[in-house]
Design brief:
This protein is mainly alpha-helical. It has one domain (15-156). It is 83% helix and 0% strand. Helix 2 runs antiparallel to helix 3 (71-99). The termini are far apart.
């Protein structure tokens, strides 16, 4: 992979690091989504998220070291991806389970398929791992806003 005319040397040097970090992020997101498909609630969700953060740390580090890149960046990307995905996906699946029992099983299966797609795309085209990250952040923020709006009327009555 050569350097194009006019392209800074730093951009050429950081390209493999960015790619390895994105790959580690995608693998962490997939691991977190698979664990989150269980739809745990309460303290078990917190415990599972902490456990998956450690698993994401290891998977991200191994993924980055396989590409001979920064293990620390890969481990941190795996940790963030796994923790975020586990927390958000388990919240979504738990909400679906509260509303309808049969739909939660199907949603868990679909989350598993989506996790496999994320892993495959992260390995083949690592920068595409940023798309599930953006989607998870958007979903987490939308759910938080909706939860705040849900109890807004009750706060006014006090």
């Amino acid at each position: 992979m050569g350097r194009r005319i006019g392209e800074p040397r730093l951009a050429v040097a950081l390209r493999p690091v960015f790619s390895a970090t994105c790959q580690a992020l995608g693998i962490g997101i997939a691991a977190g989504a698979l664990a989150g498909a269980a739809g745990l609630e309460g303290s078990s969700r917190g415990t599972m998220t902490m456990l998956l953060a450690a698993v994401g740390l290891v998977l991200g580090g191994v993924s980055a070291s396989a590409d001979d890149e920064s293990v620390i960046l890969g481990a941190l990307a795996g940790l963030v991806g796994a923790a975020l995905a586990c927390a958000v996906v388990s919240d979504v699946v738990a909400g679906a389970r509260r509303r309808e029992a049969d739909g939660a099983r199907a949603l868990g299966f679909l989350v598993g398929i989506a996790a496999l797609v994320v892993v495959a795309l992260s390995i083949l085209l690592p920068p595409l791992a940023l798309l599930p990250l953006i989607g998870l952040v958007w979903l987490a923020m939308a759910r938080r806003r909706r939860a705040q709006r849900k109890y807004e009327g009750l706060r006014v009555l006090r």
